[in-house]
Amino acid sequence: MAKTNDILDKVEPVTSDAVTANLPKFTKVQLVQSQKYVHRRDALNALLEDDKTYAFTEVDGILKKFDKGGK
User: Fold this and answer.
1) Is residue 8 part of a domain?
2) Domain count, the chain
3) DSSP-H helix ranges across the chain
4) Which of 18, 20, 52, 69 is the most exposed place for a label (fewest CB within 10 A)?
5) What is the domain extent for residue 30?
6) For the chain, how big is the Rg over CA atoms in Å?
């Protein structure tokens, strides 16, 4: 039976780009109209680009950065 360290050595690390690529993406309009961001609509309208799609994790990161004082 293989040792745990041997198995872990063979597993490739998952990059955030790879994770984000597999997540569903939404347009600015879809996100602004979603119930998830009902209280953040004004911020989303100001921060997101019209012609780009975003995963929830990306939007959450953008909002978190905005809340800390950066755009």
Assistant:
1) no
2) 1
3) 4-10, 16-22, 28-33, 41-47, 56-67
4) 69
5) 21-71
6) 17
